[in-house]
Amino acid sequence: MSRIKATFDKLAARGRKALIPFITAGDPDPGLALPLMRALVAGGADVIELGVPFSDPMADGPTIQRASERALKQGMSLRQVLSIVREFRAGDADTPVVLMGYANPVEAMGAGVFAAEAKQAGVDGVLVVDYPPEECVVFAAIIKAAGIDPIFLLAPTSTDERCGQVAEIGSGYIYYVSLKGVTGAGHLDLDEVARRIPAIRKKVGMPVGVGFGIRDAESARRIAAVADAVVIGSRIIEEIEKSPREQAAANVMAFMRGIRSALDEVAVSKEAP
Predict the structure, then answer these.
(1) Active site residue 216
(2) What is the mean pLDDT of the chain?
(3) Environment class of 186 (CB within 10 Å of its CB; exposed 0-12, middle 13-18, buried 19+)
(4) Residue 244 sits in which domain range?
(5) Which entry of 27, 46, 60, 264 is annotated as an active-site residue?
(6) What is the pLDDT of residue 241?
(7) Average pLDDT, stretch 15-40?
(8) In a 10 Å sphere around its CB, with 0-12 CB exposed, 13-18 middle and 19+ buried, how is residue 255 labelled?
């Protein structure tokens, strides 16, 4: 059983929702990557999405674009991201790590080499934003053979056919993009998310996490009422941006604890008589 499935199964048994934070590897500098990842776990993260910096992050808004630019200026590469995961895994055998990024770095390395090195580093899942399911059946098979979950995006515009394609080759969980826009956008339609999630979960047969536009405890709480996981990225990177370097990890941990508390309130209220 994969670490991702084991984590979701354990949370479901306890009536809890998954908290999945996103940070960009190497932002603001490579030396803070491990402290930030550990702060995420200490703050209540169940899964970590670790962004692989890329020069043209088409799905990302200005905040995550800036994070990628800062990391790339520090010389961050896919191999260095894998090295960070390897170091993290040496001290944490339980928290799943999902690499989130774009196709170019993976293709430059080669799918087979990437899968082998990601497995050796301790990567649990891979979400390649610009790999639609119909174009990466071979890639999904390669990383599945390495014991890594291929994770896919679904959006408000996704058809039943697209949901079926994702269900066929994806595993781990589904990342539902809650709005028609880029990461960090503020026009989150919570009612529309609540309407779509039950049908998507039934169609794909795996947990559904919701991201894009979740910025605070209240929006996280409302999403957690209908989803299996809440994904937060831009707001965490904003916390890193505004923090002095020596305070960044502590401030991120404090922010995460507020979101964790909000998610746990949802679990308690659902279990209460």
Answers:
(1) no
(2) 91
(3) exposed
(4) 3-271
(5) 60
(6) 96
(7) 97
(8) buried
